[in-house]
TrEMBL record:
This is Ornithine carbamoyltransferase. Keywords: Cytoplasm, Transferase. Residues 19-159 form the Aspartate/ornithine carbamoyltransferase carbamoyl-P binding domain. It comes from Paenibacillus vini. Its EC number is 2.1.3.3. It catalyses: carbamoyl phosphate + L-ornithine = L-citrulline + phosphate + H(+). Gene3D superfamilies: Aspartate/ornithine carbamoyltransferase (3.40.50.1370). Its main location: cytoplasm. Carbamoyl phosphate binds at S68, T69, R70, T71, Q95, R119, H146, P147, C148, Q149, C281, L282, R309. It is found in: Cytoplasm. L-ornithine binds at N177, D241, S245, M246. Residues 165-319 form the Aspartate/ornithine carbamoyltransferase Asp/Orn-binding domain. PROSITE patterns: CARBAMOYLTRANSFERASE (PS00097).
Length: 322
């Protein structure tokens, strides 16, 4: 499907309006591709200085129980550029952090807002918020999934490679929410995803099984391996993440030992294709999960990724709330 065909598919556009985004397995391959194409189209409008404000007069509430640089800035700036207003709500700003039920919070916010983004710990809170809200709920990150980041990631790969289906992405790090969403997204888009994690830090087996089931219809290969070299072999993309995500800081020393042989450095990257892309969702710890030579080298597209959080989320908000 071409960019023009995808973004003009009104049936997909209508089908997305009013929906939630909890994880990418909620969406079809065509819907995910539509969002990527729309993000690229919206990005081009901004680069050309074209005003695009489909959400003029609308408001989104941004609930943050986990702090963030990219998520907060990209959602606030994105909503402003779309003509609307974003309201930042920390856990200390709302009664949800003081014992009010999710059902009551969702009911009240649905009367005030046009959409909700939540960045939190337990995925069950995202699910419950969507259950009780009558407006779109977007998962800005939970311990289980990070679909907004992965939409931007696959947009970035698509822009650089011109194709997604048939590519190989090697993820070398903790089998966390990033690994989960990359596998689900890859399975939906036909991207082979090979995850390398040490024993005890593998992705959730249920998520792996779900991604492998989805992959049957797209031809993608989803696998979990132990040796990083096996994952990186002939990869088009190498992806790394911090070894100790937010909430696991007390495990830092133990994880440094467990992940010692999982650093993405020049020697490991040599097993990938010569034109590989290096990706990282940031923040990064140079000299830990990735060497300075790789993350700051010619293959790195980390700032393209970071920028595309803005465009991918603008596409998502426009599609769900427009």
């Amino acid at each position: 499907m071409s960019l023009t065909e995808s973004t003009k598919d009104t049936s997909i556009s209508i089908g997305l309006k009013g929906r939630d985004l909890l994880e990418l397995d909620d969406y079809t391959t065509e819907e995910i591709q539509y969002l990527i194409d729309l993000a690229i189209e919206i990005k081009a409008k901004q680069k050309n200085g074209e005003v695009y404000q489909p959400l003029k007069g609308k408001t989104i509430g941004l609930i943050f129980e986990k702090s963030s640089t990219r998520t907060r800035v990209s959602f606030e700036v994105g909503m402003f550029q779309l003509g609307g207003h974003a309201l930042f709500l920390s856990k200390n700003d709302i009664q949800l952090g003081r014992g009010e039920t999710i059902a009551d919070t969702a009911g009240v916010m649905s009367r005030y807002l046009d959409g909700i983004m939540i960045r939190t710990f337990g995925h069950d809170k995202v699910v419950d918020l969507a259950k009780y809200a009558s407006i779109p709920v977007i998962n800005g990150l939970s311990d289980l999934a990070h679909p907004c980041q992965v939409l931007a990631d696959y947009q970035t790969i698509y822009e650089h490679k011109g194709v997604l289906k048939g590519l190989k992405l090697a993820y070398v790090s903790d089998g966390n929410n990033m690994a989960h969403s990359l596998m689900i997204g890859g399975a939906k888009l036909g991207v082979h995803v090979s995850v390398a994690s040490p024993e005890g830090y593998e992705p959730d087996p249920q998520v792996v099984a779900s991604a492998q089931e989805i992959a049957k219809s797209t031809g993608a290969i989803i696998e979990v391996v132990r040796d990083p070299k096996d994952a990186v072999k002939d990869a088009d993309v190498i992806y790394s993440d911090v070894w100790a995500s937010m909430g696991f800081e007390e495990e830092q020393k133990a994880r440094e030992i467990a992940f010692a042989s999982y650093q993405v450095d020049e020697a490991l990257a040599a097993h990938a294709k010569p034109d590989y892309l290096f990706m990282h969702c940031l923040p990064a710890h140079r000299g830990e999960e990735v060497s300075e030579g790789v993350i700051d080298g010619k293959h790195s597209v980390i700032f393209d990724q970071a920028e595309n959080r803005l465009h991918a989320q603008k596409a998502l908000m426009a599609a769900l709330m427009g």
